[in-house]
Design brief:
single chain, alpha/beta, Transcription Regulator spoIIAA, six-stranded mixed beta sheet, globular
Amino acid sequence: MMVQMHQIGKHTTSYEEPDILFLKLVGEVDNVEVREINQKHLDYSRNRDHMFYLLDLSELDNLPAQVRREASETVKVLPLRGTVVYGAPLKAKILAKLLMTAVNLFKGGKNQNIVQFTDTEAEARAWLDKRRSELAAAA
């Protein structure tokens, strides 16, 4: 499995072939960091028809409103077909759900990005496998 990994402040993002965009957020995310994360995600998504988000929010403290706005602008254009968040405390779940719900409202019914929460990375990856199979069967 080929992985392109980048450290941005305390945060880590990577792309795992064939279609997983991984992001681990630690502490608070600032405006500079979110811009760099967004650019990496846009780079990863270039020439791809679909991707899945795998988010580790176990150590996220805060996503300020401006950071959420910037992140949502990028997430709107990513070809996401599923997002799974694992290890997230309640506050992080709420922040993730707010961001992804806003993005899905913008996208409407086309190419919906379903959001799922799990406790562990193993459960998250199992959900991604299931979602990938569902989409393949529907194609």
